[in-house]
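debug: dumping io for the single-chain case to check the tokenizer round-trip. Nothing else runs in this session.
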Amino acid sequence: MLEPMHIFDERATTNILTQEMHSLYLFSFLLTADNDIAGQCYVCGLGECVEGISVFMDWARSWARQTILKHAIRMIMPAPEHMDNLSSISLKGAATSGRNNLFAAIVELSAFERFVFVMSVLEKQSDEDCSVLLGCSRRDVMIARELAFQRLADTEDAYDQYMWAARSIAPDGLLA
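debug: decoded output
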């Protein structure tokens, strides 16, 4: 009887992750908005990925990103602000000091808005996946994403910066 063969080359996986170091750390930083916590999430993500014998080379990148995301959620514990609708939520805390820098504006978002923005917009995860991972309703995800868009809209050249940010986080065009 033929047994399934796991094709795993730790050196090749490590090479893939080394090439992705910048985008993986940037992903971790955008989630956490803190260099120390981002570094911890990054190291944990890479460590689990390299140690995971069942990780195929093609899956190394997405496995690392998911592991980083799960560690960031555990460390930051982002929670939605419970509001009934967008009209009752104040935009006074809009990202203003990051007016010329989309990264600074993303980092200034509330933790929950930042996670939802990075997960659903930059990583293109579904609302359902976001709500499951963040332990909230899909409605909370939709409201937080809309708030993030409203806050980030004030950033100069937001669209051009968004496209640059998306390429920086996932240079090959695959955001998930």
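debug: round-trip ok. The mean pLDDT is 77.
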